[in-house]
Specification:
heterodimer, A: alpha/beta, 2 domains, 23% helix, globular, B: Rossmann fold, 10 helices
Chain lengths: 439, 252
């Protein structure tokens, strides 16, 4: 199928939703959607010819036809999805099943004044000024086809909004479950994270596939960090063997804002993670930590773009990949230092471990520097397990398989150790022990 | 306990060991000295089963069994311990975590129950004082960012925990200041007992002031060219290795 043909079902679906009139909702939202579909029509699905997509063929996603998510699914057991999604009991949380808000599995009780947490549709219906002002402003539908697609079908999702000075210590969880339905289903959640000046929050997006059937989750998150806000963002993604996932995080950091964003991909048939950070004010800082594990025929593509727009901002990026079977991993990380961004400090590292002869990694670090007084470095390594380390462990009594397991665990666990959320650090370590631990 | 007969080994195309004969009995401490490049470390690695060393001749019998046919981990479980000259750094795994896994692999092989976390912690606490190691060091990733002295102490700690029958110490003194040397030698001496043999490999006599061996062997050009008791070390200290080299040259 040609890329131009594969967009047709989406254009038709968009029209079908408008038979008998414009969908309900405010005019600004309809304008946003109309712009979204126009952009998607102009862009189409990306192909390998596109520089940012050259290692990932999204044909499997484009070729499949999906039903719109309606929330129907086999009974979801809260305890089960919370455990697998690494959600803390009693924590503030919103749960969505196939993109549809599930109030019974959500908890917004006892939140402090200054913290607002709820489904996006609710904020829109209530005419929330902050949401209408910010939604769609950051995530560029003009250049990103999957953002355009998400915007065209903008319906529900999550909003976390912190008033200036509001500091909330507990992690806030947003759980998105893709579950079995009769036919492959598409869900396109939209998440808006608004951090007021001097506010502080820890926000976890957990994507979980519990379906053996195919589905496509196309999630877009916009994160707007005002001056001096501190955000730890964690995106955990565990899609099923037949699940397709495109996840986008678009973040803009104002002066003195500090963002730590962790992206962890543990499974999924075809996964693309987009992370774009705008360092949009003096002294803004971002730390990006990534971990991607893939096996079998899985494909995981990590695209990151950090733009140093303002002076004296810093970025520190570490992405680690562990690939076995015939898996294909991609790290495509770009740092752009704009001409006014003097005294920028940008460091990027990508490390990959190949556990089998058939696993493949494409690593493409890119630096684009237009300022002259900056500190920038990047590095990429691709390797096998270290023979000296294996021998060291064997000389202490561990057999080869155990030594390999322990070293794989160690490689991945290093990223888990960087998490500032204790629950996730522990749960991720437990997961990694379960996945690699046969020593 | 250990019988090495006419052992030959090469690395790549280069023959390094050219006919080693050595008998080590239970409870004995043997020092192996020799100039650089004589084959000391090769001997240590061959005994521990390192793959890139190829044995081309001879036999090694350990407790009546053919050592050379055992995989490295089997040798470890059978009670052989190599203290590395350059211990490997492993980010992401704490010493405690790693050592518990190793000890349980060894215990399982010996028909003993595996230790749980609590039992292991009380065991390791006991052994830590032996080499003056702190708990914080044990919780850090294995050897990562450790000083030379800390790495070597960690080796001796591992030896104490794994309780070997034959310990091979490969240049354990290299890169140590005198205080660290004293601590490590103290730990090693505390682990001497009538059932445990040790092979101490060193370039310098200094270590043997602290770990006093029963026998000393001089390795040169892949062969043991001289054996004696601890007095031999003093002679080497005073005269260097050149007189050994001339003696060997005269014989040839």
């Amino acid at each position: 199928m040609l890329a131009s043909e594969s967009k047709e079902p989406y254009l038709a679906a968009f029209k079908r939703l408008r038979v008998g009139g414009t969908p309900s909702g405010p005019a600004w939202l309809e304008q946003l959607r109309q712009a979204g579909i126009a952009n998607f029509d102009a862009l189409g699905f990306p192909t390998l010819k596109h520089e940012d997509w050259k290692y990932t063929n999204i044909e499997p996603i484009a070729a499949q036809s999906y039903a719109q998510a309606n929330g129907e699914s086999k009974a979801i057991v809260g305890a089960e999805v919370f455990a697998r999604g690494m959600i803390e009991a009693d924590a503030p949380r919103l749960t969505f099943v196939n993109g549809v808000f599930n109030a019974a599995l959500s908890n917004t009780a006892d939140l402090p004044r200054g913290l607002r947490l709820g489904p996006l549709a609710e904020f829109i219906n209530q005419g929330d000024a902050a949401v209408s002002a910010q939604l769609g402003k950051l995530a560029s539908a003009e250049q990103q086809p999957f953002v355009a697609l998400n915007t065209a079908f903008l319906g529900d999702g999550a909003v976390v909004s912190l008033a200036p000075g509001c500091r909330f210590e507990r992690p806030i969880y947003l759980l998105f479950v893709s579950a079995s339905t009769a036919q492959p289903v598409i869900s396109q959640p939209r998440i808006l994270l608004l951090l007021g000046a001097g506010s502080e929050a820890k926000i976890v997006e957990s994507y979980l596939g519990i379906s053996g059937k195919g589905y496509f989750c196309n999630a877009v998150t916009e994160l707007i960090g005002a001056e001096d806000s501190i955000i730890e963002h964690f995106r955990l993604q565990q899609d099923s063997d037949a699940g397709y996932h495109v996840g986008t995080l678009d973040a803009s950091l104002a002066r003195g804002c500090h963002l730590t964003a962790h992206g962890v991909t543990l499974s999924g048939a075809l996964v693309r993670n987009n992370v774009r950070v705008l360092l949009n004010g003096e002294g803004a800082e971002c730390v990006l930590n990534g971990l991607y594990l893939a096996d079998g025929k899985q494909h995981v593509d990590n695209y990151t773009l950090i733009e140093h727009v303002s002076p004296r901002a810093s970025s520190l990026e570490l992405y680690k990949g562990l690939l076995g079977g015939a898996a294909h991993g991609v790290f495509n990380g770009k740092i752009v230092v704009h001409k006014d961004a003097q005294k920028s400090d940008a460091r990027q590292t990508n490390k990959n471990l190949l556990l089998s002869d058939s696993a493949v990694i494409d690593s493409k670090p890119q630096l684009e520097i237009h300022a002259d007084d900056v500190k920038c470095s990047h590095g990429s390594t691709i390797g096998q397990l270290d023979a000296d380390a294996i021998f060291y462990l064997r000389s202490r009594g561990l057999d080869v398989a155990a030594a390999r397991s322990l070293l794989s665990f160690a490689f991945a666990s290093d990223v888990a150790g960087r998490l500032g959320i204790e629950n996730l650090r522990r749960r991720l370590d437990e997961y990694l022990v379960g996945r690699f631990g046969a020593w | 306990m250990l019988d090495i007969k006419n052992l030959h080994a090469k690395v790549g195309d280069k023959e390094i060991l050219r006919g080693i004969d050595l008998h080590v009995g239970a409870g004995e401490v043997h020092a192996i000295m020799g100039p650089n490049g004589s084959g000391k470390s090769t001997l240590a690695h061959v005994l521990s089963g390192r793959e890139n060393y190829q044995v081309t001749g001879g036999t090694v019998t350990y407790q009546g069994k053919d050592l050379l046919s055992m995989a490295p981990e089997i040798r470890a479980r059978e009670g052989i311990f190599l203290a590395f000259q350059y211990p490997i750094e492993i980010p992401g795994v704490s010493t405690t975590y790693f050592l518990k896994a190793a000890l349980n692999a060894v215990r399982k092989h010996r028909g003993l129950d595996e230790l749980d976390a609590m039992e292991f912690l009380s065991l390791i606490k006991d052994k830590m004082s032996l080499v003056e190691m702190s708990q914080t060091l044990l919780n850090r990733p294995l050897n990562e960012g450790f000083s030379g002295g800390e790495k070597k102490r960690n080796e001796i700690l591992q030896m104490a925990v794994l309780d070997p029958t034959l310990a091979v110490l490969d240049e354990t003194d290299s890169g140590l200041d005198i205080d660290a040397l004293r601590v490590i030698a103290g730990g090693v001496n505390a682990l001497r007992n009538p059932n445990r043999a040790m092979i101490v490999i060193t370039h310098y006599q200094r270590l043997l002031d602290y770990i006093v061996p029963d026998f000393i062997h001089v390795l040169y050009n892949g062969r043991i060219v001289k054996s004696g008791t601890k007095e031999l070390a003093l002679e080497l200290e005073n005269k260097g290795y050149d007189w050994i080299k001339s003696e060997v040259a005269a014989l040839q």
